[in-house]
Amino acid sequence: MEQQLTAFIYPLILFFVLGVIVPILLAGAADKATSRNDVDTQSAQPAEQSLYDQLGGAAAIDAAVDIFYRRVLSDAYIKVFFEDTDMVRQAQKQKAFLTMVFGGPNNYTGMDMREGHKHLVEKMGLNDSHFEHVLAHLRSTLAELGVGEEKVAEIIAIADSVRDDVLNR
Amino acid sequence: MSLYEELGGEAAVNAAVDIFYRRVLSDAYVIRFFEGVDMEKQAAKQKAFLTMVFGGPNSYTGLDMREGHKHLVKQGLNDSHFEHILAHLRSTLAELGVGADKIQEVINIADSVRADVLDR
Fold first, then answer.
1. Residue B15 backbone dihedrals phi, psi, to 5 degrees
2. Contact call for residues B56 and B47 (beta carbons, < 8 A)
3. For the segment B84-94, what is each residue's pLDDT rounded down to a tens digit?
4. How many CB atoms lie within 10 A of CB B30?
5. Is residue A144 within 8 angstroms of chain B, CB to CB?
6. What residue in B sits closest to A156 (Cα-Cα)?
7. Using CB atoms, which residue from B29, B76, B83 is nearest to A132?
């Protein structure tokens, strides 16, 4: 059971941080390309800046991971799904994974999400309400980091797109 | 026994208010709607709200909810913020040891005021 939980938690956490980070980066890229002309003229290659750099690099990822973990683990409604998980190792793997993702293609698939959560849906009752909590913690994390509500909504839309995979339906 | 009594009555509401309030005010996504609010009055309102969702004696009216939040809707209050409040309510109840079935009953009552709160 512990191994199953651990195997589930990695993809869950990884996904949600991806759900945070990637959309921020995409939204940031769109803003820079369309409306930040003042910045463009001062910067050599703003449109070519990597998504990872636009977000704020490793520091921003660390900040998001820390806030998100703190929030999730202090939520009595969902922390049962994270019990027996080594969160220190979890965080390390997550950060490494994110660095890899921002440097190259990611191999995440809906099937990973579906398989990774299936036992939680079947044996522990994982449902929409728990998914909503994780989305809420994502919004709160992004707001705490100063991300505007429009970008938050874009990020949440992407995160929400895997709901059916996570809930195995 | 009513839901309110099953949950522990007024003592449970008082315990819930403290946890709920702490959670809401530490949520950067919704805190802007509480800025400039008289916190003593707000605590009384939260107690009234929780009494209502616990199924206890209350003087709740949809019109109160609608009028009380109308200016916030103009500031962008929407379903996502409402979902945060529901989430904080679930978390509060779970922290107090309330079971999933009872939590769902409470959430159903809370969710019934959504259209009033969001003025639609």
1. -65, -40
2. no
3. 999 999 999 99
4. 24
5. yes
6. B80
7. B83
Report whether B95 contacts A75 (CB < 8 A): no
Which of left, alpha, beta for B48 (phi over 0: left; psi -120 to 50: alpha)?
alpha
**A2-166 CATH:** 1.10.490.10
State how many domains chain B has.
Answer: 1
Domain boundaries, chain A: 2-166
Select from B99, B93, B118, B80 the least CA-distant residue to B20. Answer: B93
CA dihedral A85, A86, A87, A88 (to 10 degrees): -170
Q: Write the residue in A77, A142, A144 that is nearest to B90 by C-beta.
A: A77
Tens-place pLDDT, residues A85-124: 777 766 765 665 544 434 434 555 656 778 878 989 999 9
Tokens of B70: 């109308």
> Cα angle vertex B115, ends B114, B116, to 5°?
90
- Collect all residues from B whose CB is shorter than 8 A from any CB in A: 27-29, 76, 80, 83-84, 86-87, 90-91, 93-95, 100, 103-104, 107
Confidence (pTM): 0.75
